[in-house]
Amino acid sequence: MQIAFAEAAKGESTWTNPKVCAVIVKDGQILAKGHHEKFGGPHAEINTLSHLKNISDAKGADMYVTLEPCSHFGKTPPCVQKLVEVGISRVFIGEVDPNPIVSGRGIKYLKDHGIEVTDMDCQSEINESYNFYYQKKRPLVTLKYAMTMDGKINQKNGQRSIITGQTAYQDAQKLRSENQAILIGEHTLKVDDPQLTVRIKKMDFPLIRVVVVDSADEISTDMKIFQDTSSEIYLLSKQAATKQFPDQVHVEVGDWTPKEIVKFLAEKNIESLLVEGGSHLQADFVAAKLLDKVVVYLAPKIFGGNALPAIATDSQAQAIALTEPELTQLGSDLKVELRKAE
Amino acid sequence: MQIAFAEAAKGESTWTNPKVCAVIVKDGQILAKGHHEKFGGPHAEINTLSHLKNISDAKGADMYVTLEPCSHFGKTPPCVQKLVEVGISRVFIGEVDPNPIVSGRGIKYLKDHGIEVTDMDCQSEINESYNFYYQKKRPLVTLKYAMTMDGKINQKNGQRSIITGQTAYQDAQKLRSENQAILIGEHTLKVDDPQLTVRIKKMDFPLIRVVVVDSADEISTDMKIFQDTSSEIYLLSKQAATKQFPDQVHVEVGDWTPKEIVKFLAEKNIESLLVEGGSHLQADFVAAKLLDKVVVYLAPKIFGGNALPAIATDSQAQAIALTEPELTQLGSDLKVELRKAE
Question: Which Pfam families match (chains A, B) (predicted)?
């Protein structure tokens, strides 16, 4: 099962699907392994069967699969049918699928068709946001910011301050690539003029870009974010808007509190959200206690006066306890990863 | 010489004197070693000679001494005379003494009296602030603060916020014990009501306590700092004052900028100053670029709104580059030590 989990983690383009690997074992020998490679593509179980020399080898074999096999018609037919059809005799499952469309039904189908099923209850973290989404019915929220040793994220000169070095930048890009949506506030959009894309690799499923604004009509279509057409952009606008934006841009009017934003994204099946600033938007999420992880990149400098604190000091945000700080040195910067204490 | 430096570091009560160790070697054997144990007590060289079985063993022996032997009458007679007297034939010196009262004169005296002298130029860090003081003519300034993961040092409720845990507290006490003076601002005095002492061990030379205030007359004599009589207290007051304070308290009236504070302490032979807040005093030192080291204790929590940033945002403090972050995990807190970049 450890081999299977390690292999499952290779599925970098599964998007909102879980990462899964299956291994077929017979007489103590691994006959085949395969993982779910890409959202919309064949599931791990089917990939694995296709890697057998002869499909007849599956007869009487054991399958170790990191996640409960699916029992429904989605983009592909149910895996459980196939497992029964090829004559797998025992299935060892790493984790029960938290998705209610499957959860327990896959196991039941297999058992009903004479396959011996063992739930190994592995509690792995490879599908952290997938599991979180189905348990909590909302995306896992990560606050991310780069700050100085005095807790500042920008100098107040209306220009973007470069905080961290190249290694931290690469790491922050990787963090983006592991999320399905990215969110910033209007001030950050205007000061940084970012594309909000992942630069370090081609994404099969680029992350959805979300910006909270006061009035979408006040946002210039010349901004860099609109030049990139690789993924959808949601402008969450407080005021009604009439302005014409490029095709990939959707203006949604509402009272966009963190709770409403997260609800909106949950309805779009977004399992993970990266909140990338600024200071007030982060503060709103802290105030709403809507954060699950915090990733801070610390740079060896002091900004001192006339600078923006990481979390706005004039906000309603109350103190929040975090836990389990994990440290990584990235060049001369430090990365600290924390979780909200339960 | 490595043995000597390790031994020298044991001198915890040398106060403004350097830590020094001397080792006597003859025919490849260590005959004696000794270190300077306490300010006012015998120097390392004399201690070492006293550890010889017979003082006549010194004749023709080598001495390894971490710092140039002194050549002046201070609290004790000059060591160089004694070395000549007992017949040491070669002296290996770790570092030349930066104190102008000695610097080079010790070596000259030894050479003039027929002793072979080798300067090993070791650049050790055991006398960092001693060396700094004589090179820069001012104390080494360390800014120290405990902050949350959003760079806040206190909640704005007029009460002291507990930021870090017990392990970080112990470490911060140790940091105090390694400094000769400690400085805070008036707001910190009033909110925290600290004693500014070292609690974890009995100090032979407790650190001098300095508080910058607007008007000493406005400071209550009931504060805890005045109850502790173990060391001098300097109230650096902007306004003239008439109030009667306990004997250990000195009110000094002046325009107490960081530059003036540091000059005042330099005249008192203070080689190391720990600036312990608050937010505005730290900002003043950053603005004056009068800081050499920064020690930050990072706690796994977010304070959010209505909280004080580590360095006041409404100050004139400009950005300062730091370097070489050194990390220590202290319980669930992190310690980051940095230096001002040259």
Answer: dCMP_cyt_deam_1 (PF00383), RibD_C (PF01872)
